[in-house]
Amino acid sequence: PFNIMADLIKIGVFPAPNQPLEPDIAAKICEIHGFTFEREKRDKDKGFHKEVEVIKEPEAPKQEPEDLLKTRPPIVTIMGHVDHGKTSILDYFRKSKVVSGEAGGITQHIGAYQVIHNDQEITFLDTPGHAIFSDMRARGADITDIVIIVVAANDGIMPQTLEAIKHAKKAKKTIIVAINKCDLPSSNVDRVKSQLAENGLQTTDFGGDTEFAEVSALTGKNMEDLLELIALQAEVLELKANPKATARAAVIEARVVPGRGTTATVIVESGTLKVGTPFICGPYAGKVRSLINDRGAAIKSAHPGMPVEVIGFEELPNVGDHLTEMKSEREAKSLASERQEAQRLVRLKPQHRNRMEDLYSMVRDGGGKAQLKLILKCDVQGSVEAIRKAVLAITSEKVECTFITAAAGPITESDISYAASTDAIVLGFNVKVEAKAVKSAKSASVEVKLYSIVYELIDQVREAMLGLLEPLT
Ligand code: GDP
């Protein structure tokens, strides 16, 4: 069973019990569990839900047509205890095996780089340590396929080695062990192997299923073998992506570069990211102005598995956010403002949202008199008075009804924020909902009900107050 509460807390959302989730957040939770989130149209409602245009971030289809899938490079993270040689291994590959083959020609530090081994690309995440790893995992954006656990042959396993093993196992990653510093006279490979075996990593020599390489990042000994093991494991994993799909990429680094503005390094997950592509990334819109590869060269497009620095962010994105290609800048902007509004309202702490239907369960669950708070907006002052009187005349032992406001005029954004802060339901009689109000009502999950027939309105309120409405969910 899923523990949604725990998942929510992990992504920094602290909902009250029974609080409806923002669509955006629901989508994230779905993503963590490998589902695709779709919004249901609530035709049952007399509300505005039907008319609202919902711009959805295109979802990468989970099941891509087989013939469109192409092999993609593995994404490798190096983890291990401090000083055991993570940086040295990364530097060794970077210097000796860069894609262009021009040793020493690499200057850019964009957070990841690629090497070519027997015509096969391998992508290394350049940020050693598991801080970033668990951070990205928590956001459901962990893109690593293979984890290299580095252990110094002279030191043996240390606390951070164990932690790294724990992380990698929990994330169900393919693990390759690199026993480093094998050039040292004090190295003791057998000891390291038995220590690792005690911790669940048994070498294939001893009937286990973990590949080991005995290397030296200093002398370069067996470093080719390590690459070969990575390539083999990648083959076993059958890593594939559709380069023709909607482009999607994960942010692994983000920074502000003087003279260049906001840039972020992403790793393309599917599709092909091209210059000129409009996108959404977290709550921000953007458009790819330029792409820079791991050698500092401007490129036109980036394929799956490739790390690339993207220029064209509106604001600094978060590590772990996904960049998704959008059809147009307009749609990207619109989705961005929807998400920003949702964030703003989450920050305003919209706790439990009342819905008329919820009164039913509140009444059933007991706990004193339930409160039905209403914000009423009508076309004319005459209807305001008539409806208010009729509603207040309804008597219920279980529900107490109060009007936060009752006035003539359309439903505005401020009605919605008022409803959000007082936990009220908004009723409209023969009025329109302003466009901005539609948006914020959606983001804040404020219930808005529209009526054009007086007795329907009164009846529904009565039913709610008598606890007769069935919950919709
Ligand atoms: P990190 O903290 O895991 O990134 O470790 P570093 O890559 O910074 O390496 C720590 C120290 O070990 C440095 O002084 C390296 O020069 C040294 N070192 C790394 N790899 C080797 C190796 O294979 N052999 C020897 N003798 N020293 C190494």
TrEMBL record:
It is found in: Cytoplasm. The keyword Metal-binding does not apply. Transmembrane segments: none annotated. Keywords: Cytoplasm, GTP-binding, Initiation factor, Nucleotide-binding, Protein biosynthesis. Residues 71-240 form the Tr-type G domain. GO terms for cellular component: cytoplasm. GO terms for molecular function: GTP binding; GTPase activity; translation initiation factor activity. GTP binds at residues 80-87, 126-130, 180-183. Residues 74-222 are annotated as: G-domain. The keyword Cytoplasm applies. Its main location: cytoplasm. One of the essential components for the initiation of protein synthesis. Protects formylmethionyl-tRNA from spontaneous hydrolysis and promotes its binding to the 30S ribosomal subunits. Also involved in the hydrolysis of GTP during the formation of the 70S ribosomal complex. Belongs to the TRAFAC class translation factor GTPase superfamily. Classic translation factor GTPase family. IF-2 subfamily. This is Translation initiation factor IF-2. The gene is infB.
